[in-house]
Amino acid sequence: MKVTHVETIVAIAEAGSLRAAARSLRKSQPALTKTLKQAEEELGAKIFARAARGVEPTEIGRKIIARARMISSEFRKLDEDIRQIQGDGSGNLHVIVSPLAAVRIVPKVMDRFRKQFPNVHLQVAGGHPPGALAVLRSGEADLVIGPVPARDDRAGLSIRNLVKTPVVVITGKGSRYANATRLEQLVDAEWIMVGARKRSFGIAADFLAAGLPVPDPITTSDSITSLLAMIEGSDRLCSFPGLMLEEIIPRWEIVALPLEDTVEPVQIGLITLADRPLTPAGQAFADAVLNRARYLAPASSDNH
């Protein structure tokens, strides 16, 4: 399949119609239709079907589109690789970060990275496994900084451990749980979880290890600001990275519970695709992240 075929498939999938795709590629609609037909004939499969408005992928078309997006991303990265090696400091870098990384790692990384690549467009998005890893594997993201996935979910990934953060449970000042010391006191509380609903509950294993039922967080939030606002002045609970406490305690009416039960720390890592080398800009960002993590490591050790 030719590069133009890949370009056409991705453009139609993103635009939702042949007309809009032709406009985005600055081609005529008949020319685009011809290229699509060639791609479908070469693959022996119908990729798109007519819909009430525009077109929509067929069942097999969805798989073809996913693969085409990955190929398209690789072509873009190849182009950026060459240009950056030749001294052109342009390009794009997409990084997905956990709340801890967003607050304690990325801000300090920016100065060092910008000195080397002032013109690279950097997109920093919040995210958590498993969603963040799906975006990484699709080729849409270049690297993820966040909790290291379980061993069963590491296929195809390259992981560099950065720092271990203690995990605390936070609640609002004045909460009836503010002085709780045992996990069993928290089983029936209302929990909020950072991240998407499909993400596993962060301290589920600690409840199980204590022989307790695992609470089911009924509220989730990708926004740390929203999450803290919901906890402040309430009895709601949330498991939270201990290395972020010094950032939030002075600004929010929130306290960490003085738990005596064991709550295991979380390993934060730098995660990339094992078979996809980073561009020079991506490698510079990764190096800056590793350097920043060495600074955070002593603080992590002091909490154990």
Which helices and strands, and how do they pair?
Elements: H1 3-15, H2 18-25, H3 29-43, E1 48-50, E2 55-57, H4 59-85, E3 92-97, H5 99-116, E4 121-126, H6 131-138, E5 143-147, E6 157-165, E7 167-172, E8 192-194, H7 204-209, E9 219-221, H8 224-231, E10 238-241, H9 245-248, E11 254-256, E12 266-273, H10 280-302
Parallel strand pairs: 3-4, 3-5, 8-9
Antiparallel strand pairs: 1-2, 5-12, 6-12, 7-10, 7-11
Structure, explained:
Helix 1 (3-15) packs across helix 3 (29-43). The chain is α/β, with parallel strands linked by helices. Strands 4-3-5-12-6 form a five-stranded mixed β-sheet, with helices on both faces. The protein folds into three domains: 3-83, Orthogonal Bundle (Arc Repressor Mutant, subunit A); 89-164 and 267-302, Periplasmic binding protein-like II (D-Maltodextrin-Binding Protein, domain 2, 3-Layer(aba) Sandwich); 167-263, D-Maltodextrin-Binding Protein, domain 2 (3-Layer(aba) Sandwich). 43% of the residues lie in helices and 19% in strands. It contains ten helices and twelve strands. The protein has helices at 3-15, 18-25, 29-43, 59-85, 99-116, 131-138, 204-209, 224-231, 245-248, 280-302; strands at residues 48-50, 55-57, 92-97, 121-126, 143-147, 157-165, 167-172, 192-194, 219-221, 238-241, 254-256, 266-273. The longest helix is centred in the first third of the chain and has 27 residues, at 59-85. Helix 7 (204-209) links the parallel strand 8 (192-194) and strand 9 (219-221).
